[in-house]
Amino acid sequence: MDWDRWRDFTGVLCDKKVPTKLKVLHYKTSIKQTLMYACESWPVTQRTEDRMNVTEMSMLRHINGISYE
């Protein structure tokens, strides 16, 4: 669900002309809230928490233009 929301805003979040502070603010108010809302319906295990952390770090790397390829 969170990646669907991410794709909706990719144009803004990955645009180098948009200031990083604005992109992070947008991420915190829309993308992260969607991720947290979705996890309320299932039990959070250590594996699930790790996956959520990996997803969040991946999205933040995209916002900052960091690539490990």
Short description:
With 69 residues, this protein is mostly helical. The chain has helices spanning 2-8, 10-13, 20-38, 46-64. It starts with a helix and ends in a 5-residue tail after the last helix.
**Gross morphology:** globular
Radius of gyration: 13 Å
Instruction: Report the mean per-residue pLDDT as an integer.
Output: 77
Span of the ends, CA to CA: 25 Å
- The share of residues in helices is over 70%
Whole-number count of domains: 1
Order of helices and strands: HHHH
Number of strands: 0
Number of helices: 4
Largest sheet: none
Structural class determined from secondary elements: mainly alpha
Spans of at least 5 consecutive residues with low confidence: none
Strand content: under 5%
What report would you give on this structure?
This protein is mostly helical. The chain has 4 helices and no strands. The chain has one domain. 71% of the residues lie in helices and 0% in strands. The mean pLDDT is 77.
